Amino acid sequence: MTNTAPRAWQVVLERIEGDLREGRLAPGDRLTPERELASQLGVGRSSVREAVRVLEVLGVVRTATGSGPTAGAMIVTTPRGGLAAFLRLQVAANGFPLTDVVRTRIVLECDVAERLAQDDVDLAEVVGILDAMDAEDLAPEDFLALDARFHQALSEVSGNAVVSAMMAGLRSSIEAYTRAGAARLDTWPAVADRLRAEHRRIVAAVSTGDADGAREAVRAHITDYYTEVARALSPSDAAESAVGEAARAAVRSSAD
Length: 256
Description:
Elements: H1 8-21, H2 34-41, H3 45-57, E1 61-64, E2 72-75, H4 79-92, H5 98-117, H6 124-133, H7 140-157, H8 161-173, H9 175-183, H10 188-207, H11 211-232, H12 243-253
Antiparallel strand pairs: 1-2
Helix pairs in contact: 1-3, 2-3, 4-8, 4-12, 5-7, 5-8, 5-10, 5-11, 6-7, 6-10, 7-8, 9-11, 9-12, 10-11
């Protein structure tokens, strides 16, 4: 018979989850000391430490060593970091196909753009990022970093914390892939100019309340660039048969 009893560290996780859900723990609170929690739950201190490490990776707690008021584990709830790590690992392990990640990005970002176009929102930070992307001789990696920030800023303006966290995770999970693709684009300056124009088109549609135009601009922008990168990294490239594996290695490296 299969043993379905939870492991000791899972018991600790369930206790902390229950405390959060019932309001006995909140952001800024410190977890019960390791020795005391282990005694309460009838588990070893190593199981408590293992559960806390899991929570730290997930972005739920922050730990500090030593003694005094700043020591121990504190509830911080920063889901963006935890979700990003999870998605990076799943993509690297081929658990989540890249195409599915990109399609999910399109669904989320199209909805964000459409909703922003229907509201009166402050796009000052978004426009500032676009201005920074207009700098001459901007290296591809710097351009792509600003590109990622542009898309993230749009999701943050929407005010939806879940979408914002998912967006950060999705972007992070394919960051190495897009960098690898950009490095193989012989026409990068022209590509960068096109991306700048597409970004401005998205912002213009949002600013003028053109919800349909904003949605379509985002869809075309993400689809076209991803297609371009995919072709650049295609394993069918006769000049370099190992390109496909190099692309997969680039994705795996983002989990390091």
